[in-house]
Structure formats: C-alpha cells, structure tokens
Amino acid sequence: MSNAKIQLRLPKDLKDAATRQAEVSGVSLNLFVATAIAARVGATSEAARYFSARGTRTTPARAKALLMRLGTPGEMRDDDRLDAPDEAA
Questions:
Q1: Secondary structure of the chain in the HEC alphabet?
Q2: What is the block-wise mean pLDDT of the chain (89 residues), using blocks of 10 residues?
C-alpha cells in the first residue's frame, strides 16, 4: 500500500475540533482524518453492498404489491411512482 499526499482546506473551527478529538484519542490529526475517511468510505460501500443484495431478493411487481397493501390510499405524486411517468396509467 502506498500513501498519497493531499492538501485539505478546512474551516478553522472544524480543524480545531478535529485536533482536539485527535488529542483526546491519542492519535495524530493525520491518523484521525484518515480513520474518519476510511470509516465513511467503508460505511458507504457496505450500504451499497447491502441494498444491492436486498434488491436481488424481490421484483418490482412484488414491491408494488407490498406498497399497495401497506400504503395509504390517495393520489400518488409523480415522484412516488415505481414505474416511469410514460408507463403510468
């Protein structure tokens, strides 16, 4: 694994808060920032993996049937529809 240098511009109050938290944790600001970025990247990757796996367990028709059973009757907004606007009836 190789390291890359980046220049990071932060508001002073955010940098000061991160410095304080790094000191409390007993790590350098560099390690604190790298760990925070790694946690965010890992969480995003895990969420994408989870929802991708869950998405393969159903079909649009089954999802629509579930929503019809659980939903509240009324007029749907265009952005609430599962089918494309040109397919909507």
A1: CCCCCCCCCCCHHHHHHHHHHHHHHCCCHHHHHHHHHHHHHHHHHHHHHHHHHHHCCCCHHHHHHHHHHHCCCCCCCHHHCCCCCCCCC
A2: 90 97 96 94 91 88 86 74 59
HSE-CB for 1 with a 13 A CA cutoff: 1
**Residue showing tokens 């989870």:** 50
Q: How many other β-carbons are positioned within 10 Å of the β-carbon of residue 84?
A: 7
- Report yes or no: 46 and 53 within 8 Å, Cβ to Cβ: no
